[in-house]
Structures are given as C-alpha cells and as structure tokens.
Inverse folding.
C-alpha cells in the first residue's frame, strides 16, 4: 500500500471535478452508520478516515482508533476530533499491526472505500485479520463492478468489458475491481471456516456515471427524495447498487 502516492490522491480527491462523489460519500456513510447502529460496537478501528471520519457522526463508543496515512486527511481528523478522546495515527495499517494487536481489543473494524485502492488486497486483509479478536466484526465496502450503471453502459456499447477499471478509478489510483460475488468469495478465501459472513449486499442504484449524475443534479432532474429512493432501491435490486458491502465476524 505504501507505494501509492497518498498525498496526490488526497489532492485529487479534494479537487474532484465529479462532485457527485460527495453524494456517494453521504450514502456510503449512511450504510456504515446503519451497520454500526445494528451491531452497537464499543471499541472501533477506522482504517482510512478520508476527509470526514465516521466519528464525526457516530458517538456511541468507548474507545476509537483511526489509521490515516494521508497528512491532509490526518490533520483534518485531528482538528475535527481533538476533543473526542480518539487516538489517531498518521501511518499505514501495516506499520501499526503489532502495536494495535498488543494494546487494543477491537469489536468492530471499518474498512470503507479502501480495499479496491490498495496495491495488494490479500496482504491488506491479512493485516486487518491480525488485529482482530474473537468476535470482531469487520465492515468492508467497495465500488461495484457490476452496478446497474456499468451494466447499462456495457449493454449500450459505451464500455467494452465489465470488470475493467474506469477512467475515474485509474485517476484515483484504484487497483482492483469487485462485484458482490467476488468480494464475498475474497473474504471467504481468507477467513475459511474461522469466520462467519453476517450480511452482504449493495446500496444506491446509480443509473449514470458521476459526471452525468452531477448534470442531473445541476438541471434539477434529481432531488433529495429521488436520491434517497435510489439508495433504497437496492432492496429490490440487491446486487446492482453502485457500491457493495460485506459484514463478517471473526
């Protein structure tokens, strides 16, 4: 993971011309918060907090740790959370595995919009599992390579193949694509019989790419109610949301 240009990624994220990503951040956080409220964990690790840590919203914890390698995101988290008794490390997870394993007992680990970006997802998940305890729940979410908008683009001849990295994905230094089956199988391959998948699925059925979704917002074709409806539509199209998730227990 360390050979990614983290600071360039941070700047590209902040300067993202496709401002629909801000909408996706909102619904991604909504899914994470739903999961936290469902399982009610008290000792939580957030791997990669980005511009807006989940702890700006979720307060029902006893102990919280953030691992964030980007200086920009780390400094913002320090400013946002300075009075919240949260320990924040400006480093990569792999460099803190021994410290975390020795000093902390996590009952929940958040890996939000990150697994697809690391250079070696297998090694990264192994590091996550090293800091788990018996009963630790892990939440992973990633973009869906078989989302409705990509399937539609493929059938329309706009893209040549499903599962390839999009131009936006390449810009943001993403390395791997997942669909729901691939993600759940990836987890099963690592956890074997020692863990249990609690639930999995997708959220926010997005009809167009970010740029076209932004145009729909600018031209008032979409509003908040319709966006909320797209989030809930995955109840009827469980595999075709823009992003997918899996929750599993060690």
């Amino acid at each position: 993971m360390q050979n990614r240009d983290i600071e360039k990624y941070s700047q590209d994220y902040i300067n993202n011309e496709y401002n629909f990503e801000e909408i996706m951040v909102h619904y991604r956080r909504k899914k994470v918060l739903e999961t936290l409220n469902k399982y009610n964990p008290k000792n939580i690790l957030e791997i990669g907090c980005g511009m807006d840590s989940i702890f700006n919203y979720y307060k029902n914890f006893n102990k919280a740790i953030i691992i964030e390698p980007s200086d920009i995101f780390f400094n913002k988290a320090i400013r946002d959370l300075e009075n919240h008794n949260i320990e924040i490390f400006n480093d990569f997870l792999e460099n803190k595995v021994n410290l975390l394993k020795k000093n902390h007992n996590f009952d929940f680990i958040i890996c939000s919009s990150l697994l697809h970006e690391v250079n070696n997802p297998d090694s990264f998940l192994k590091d996550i599992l090293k800091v788990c305890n018996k009963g630790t729940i892990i939440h992973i979410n990633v973009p869906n390579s078989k989302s409705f908008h990509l399937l539609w683009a493929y059938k329309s001849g706009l893209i040549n193949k499903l599962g390839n990295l999009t131009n936006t994905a390449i810009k943001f230094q993403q390395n791997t694509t997942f669909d729901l089956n691939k993600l759940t199988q990836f987890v099963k391959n690592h956890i074997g019989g020692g863990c249990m998948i609690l639930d999995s699925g997708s959220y926010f059925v997005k009809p167009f790419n970010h740029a076209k979704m932004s145009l729909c917002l600018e031209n008032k074709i979409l509003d908040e109610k319709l966006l909320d409806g797209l989030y809930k539509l995955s109840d009827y199209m469980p595999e075709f949301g823009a992003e997918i998730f899996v929750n599993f227990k060690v």
Remarks:
- Residues 6-249 form a domain with the Rossmann fold fold (CATH 3.40.50.150).
- The chain has a mean pLDDT of 89.
- The radius of gyration is 18 Å.
- The beta strands are 43-47, 63-67, 86-89, 108-112, 137-143, 196-203, 243-249.
